[in-house]
Amino acid sequence: MHTASALTDTALAVQRINGMTPRRSSAWNAAFLAAYATIRLMDPLLRWTWFSVGLGITSRLTVRGRRTGKERSVLVGLIRVGGRWYVGHPNGEVAWTRNLLSSREARVAPRPEAPVDVAAAPLKHGPERDRVILATAEQQPFPANLLYRGARTHILSEGRYFRLEPR
């Protein structure tokens, strides 16, 4: 009975964003898969641009691999809400989110010369995660902001987000 009540509370908390109900969408899933495949193809150019002149909210996240133990780096959007840092993926689990969930620690570099060791806490469905999802749509540069705004109900259902705290 306590578990059912907790699930109901979670479902109600997630519906607070303008009455949106979290809902997985095959179309948004395909759109994100295509968008991230394109980003992977452009990765060398994106990394060069980030290193040379910066790239909006883009930061380098380095996480130890859960199977190999090797450090893996990925460029992510570093979302800032209420003075805290967050990272996430809108389309569910991917390799770097699984690694971060496993290790619970990483190094984030908002600028190439300024890496910071952080502890990572996964966000459960609820008001904090909702605020991060809203902020992600506002802080992403064009055209990603349009994708994130359009896909909010999908992201509410599928997105994996973490709070990062300096160690």
Q: How many domain units? A: 1
Number of helices: 7
Morphology: globular
Strand content: 25-35%
Q: Biggest sheet: strands side by side, in what order?
A: 2-1-5-6-7-4-3
Query: Can you tell me the CATH class?
Result: Mainly Beta
> By helix and strand content, what is the structural category?
alpha+beta
Distance between the termini: 38 Å
Low-confidence stretches: 1-11
SSE string, helix = H, strand = E? HHHEEEEHEEHHHE
Short précis:
This protein is of the alpha+beta class and 167 residues long. 46% of the residues lie in helices and 25% in strands.
What does this structure look like?
This protein has one domain: Roll (Pnp Oxidase, Chain A). The chain is 46% helix and 25% strand. The protein has 7 helices and 7 strands; from the N terminus they run αααββββαββαααβ. It has a 7-stranded antiparallel β-sheet, sandwiched between helices. α5 runs antiparallel to α6. The radius of gyration is 16 Å and the shape is globular. The N terminus is likely disordered.
